Amino acid sequence: MEKEENILGTEKIGKLIRKFSIPCIISLLVNSLYNIIDQIFIGHGVGYLGNGATNVVFPLTMIGLAFSLMLGDGAASYLSLKLGEKKKEEATKGVSNGIIISLVISIIFCAITLIFLPQLLNIFGCTDNLRDYALGYGRIIAIGLPFMMIGTTLNSIIRADGSPKFAMATMVTGAILNTILDPILIFIFKMGVEGAAIATIFSQFVTFAFNICYLKRFKSININRENFKFKFSVGKKILALGISSFITQMSFVFVVAVENNLLAKYGAESKFGSEIPITVLGIVMKISQILNSIIVGIASGSQPIFGYNYGARKFDRVKSTLKMVLGISLIISTFAFILFQTIPDKLISIFGSGNENYMEFACLAFRTYLMLCICNGIQIPSGIFFQAIGKSIKSVILSLSRQILFLIPAFILLGKFFGITGVLCAGPVADGTAFILAVTLLIFEIKHLKQGENKSQALIDDTSTDNQLNKQVIITISREFGSGGRYIGRLIADKLGIKLYDKEFIEKLAKETGLSEEYIENNEQKRNALAGLNNGYYFGLNNADELFLKESELIKDVANKESCVIIGRCANFILKDRKNVVKVFVYSNLENKVKRATEIYGIEKNKAEKEIKRIDKLRANHYKYYTEKDWKDQSNYDICINSDTLGVKKSADLICEMIKDKETTLA
After folding, report:
1. Residues 316, 209 share a domain
2. Which of 93, 353, 331 minimizes the C-alpha distance to 224?
3. What is the pTM of this model?
4. pLDDT tens per residue across span 484-516
């Protein structure tokens, strides 16, 4: 661990980016190419109507992928969290429950797709000319959905188990097999779109089979038949952890559905007809996805570099990394822009030929829809950068802004006024507005980095350590903001002559993680509504989860060594199985909390009430997320005390008396 941190803080940035980004790029490119291969061979073997059919079936695959990534990323995060808590049995339950839910959902989704395929295709813009091809292709793809979904779920879990190379190898194997089988079934056996579908599901089955075999060779846990018992609370947690991946994928499904329907509607009013726009723009978007995969891979690989150096307050390295990532991304997106503008006819020809209208629309689509693709070189890395430094709200806004906030409204409005050309113009409008938003947020953040100063903070509490206890006792104190709970904890520690652990954890965490003390203080014990949307989005746990795991280790470590008072940080839950723990919750009425907030913390009186409620809500969300329990539930504590009733000093005395009584009951 120490070696890795030193590398992130000292190694040449270019070398670090190469080391971490190349595996990410390969994985993402394999995913992108998987979908493109079918269209290349179908275009040459069947024609553009065959490709149009795959484009209206593609959203069904994306829905299946959304569920499988939600379960895979959720189970992977659950596995990492529980292993961090040293709870292998719970980790095993998470993996088995993720697989069980994936199996059930995949079978249900397969059945729904087979039964309602015609109606589903209509939702995704299928036309009469595409229907026969789409039904033939879609029915076979639907049969393979369970293999694809379970295989993808397992792929995420395998990565979290510490075998990313194995996970990548199974994906690459499937992609290569699909590339080999497509021409054989389409050209030699003359099976058309059905042949392409068979090649796809057979390749997915092979990936699925390899991943199933991995279950017997897990590194971190031992999984067997007895573990496959569904537990609702575990399943619920997995879904919550993976919801970000689901939202991301489903947003793309929504975009394709709106896009295809508008293309069919306004295309029918033009000389191009409905099928050519649906076919061509589907291909254009998939080609642009190759560009985006490379950019996402570069930025995702740079996440640990951003995160470590930001936390270590090495802002020069943060800025240098950001500059290099943006520079590389801009070079790649500029190169792609030149290709899209100069040789669109050559690019579309890779996917087969068409009539005059087909080629004309293809050139128009590449040059118009991808006119501002250069902006992706800034917008995409910006979202990943903000995630890496813990700015979850900014990250989520940037990650979803282009698709949801800008692209869909632009489709609808511009299509209404300018027809098929307006639909194409929605692309650069969305790219441009998302770019402006990203640049604005980046400018403010870079100014903040320039103002960053290394500040030494005296965070260790100076409490007496003349221990008055004969046996080891741990006191955990949870408290409402402004209730005086921390001061009560200090009085207890002084009276009993034991150590108070509160902000000292911040200093310890800074040394363990490389994150700055300022960053940890601003982000620990606080979970806003959007924080979960970063889980798994670009690989791995988010910063809040990493902090919780490290804090849990530190809390257990100090509890093993000495009697002490621990403030907050879910310590009552983390130490719940220990008999020598006294769990306290301190609350107060709002009037007194406002008074303390203004006098002690210097918060303006007219803002104090709102701030108190905000912080308490963040603490409650944090507690609920990691413990699945209500923060204020009295059953979580041994004593709940209103600090207004006796005052903080007498409240501390009362708790000390209880602790002395507790000490006599310990063996």
Report:
1. no
2. 93
3. 0.78
4. 999 999 999 999 999 998 887 777 777 666 566
